[in-house]
């Protein structure tokens, strides 16, 4: 068969320069009929190769039989069942072509979202370890939320995957938007609805805002594909070449990048940038309630002599004057506050490290003062012949003879010395 380069050169010489057929046949070592065919052909020659057999052809009936019963059977198991001993590459190619014949199609519809209708939520875990103080570095979760209509995305790093921290991050984002989408889509995140039913914290949050939280089906990431794709976009376009000095530095950098880059770029699916559709999306959202929803970590504990309360593996000091009383503890990503009977008895910056002890020097000084006052009080009671019980009431100190009389013991504190009996040796003498 004539080569492509020869065909092009023959046509050029004959049609452009007028070289005769006979001369072209001699020059290229071809027959004159072949040269005439090349001159007449208006399309380049194509090399068509006939079908070739494959070593897997003999196994195809067995493969089809297995796939008919178990459409999702892995290729290594198929190789074992049919006795395949060669490389798996050829077998994988054949199974990849045959498997769709036995698996029912699962089409995915394209969904158009109305303004303010939905926002998809997810946790993203960037690989870089963030410095969190106390010489520690941690991989921290980032809460990402993407609006369905405009594709506007916002993200914030949070201290943990606990419900209070996740809801605090959501409230920070929603508060920045100035409104809340009517439906918030979540996967089966344990703090939101790991059992398939919303947790009490998530239900309270949604009820206060007057919106709904919809849980995606298990193992179905396509249900929130918008935010999943944004997570991949973070990995490829935000993280490379960046370093972070703290979680707050991370939040500053990603907020700036989202504002100046991600939310202003053209999105082919909507034919515009997210920023261009934001006004319409925002207008369709539900207004924020007059009372903020309950977010953050909260618990109540009776303060012990060790005047510390624990929040997310860290211990924070509390005013020791509240020892023995109930203390209400609240923590958001920025601070930890403890109150007793409506009065603040501790306030600290929240530590994002783990297993740390955070002490307010004022609390230590108060504890020393209380111990000194207690010691002085005990000394005064000792001088007065009384002692104070652990609960504070005064107990008189009784003399020991009083207890002897009470129990009928005859005890002479000054015994008379009696003469000793003579020994046997002294009697003999």
Give the topology.
Elements: H1 4-16, H2 21-28, H3 32-40, H4 60-69, H5 75-82, H6 88-98, E1 118-124, E2 130-133, E3 136-138, E4 142-147, E5 153-157, H7 163-177, E6 183-186, H8 190-193, H9 200-209, E7 212-215, H10 225-238, H11 247-260, H12 274-283, E8 297-302, E9 308-311, E10 314-317, E11 326-331, E12 335-340, E13 343-349, E14 357-358, H13 361-383, E15 386-388, E16 394-396, H14 400-407, H15 424-428
Parallel strand pairs: 1-6, 6-7, 10-14
Antiparallel strand pairs: 1-4, 2-3, 4-5, 8-11, 9-10, 11-12, 12-13, 15-16
Q: Can you offer a commentary on this structure?
A:
Helices cover 38% and strands 17% of the residues. With 429 residues, the chain is α+β, with helices and mostly antiparallel strands. It folds into 4 domains: 4-40; 57-101; 118-283, Nucleotidyltransferase, domain 5 (2-Layer Sandwich), CATH 3.30.420; 297-363, no CATH class. It has a 5-stranded mixed β-sheet with strand order 5-4-1-6-7, sandwiched between helices. It has a 4-stranded antiparallel β-sheet with strand order 8-11-12-13. A 3-stranded mixed β-sheet has the order 9-10-14, with no helix packed on it. A hairpin with a 2-residue loop joins strand 12 and strand 13 (343-349). Helix 2 (21-28) crosses helix 3 (32-40). The protein is elongated. The N and C termini lie far apart (153 Å).
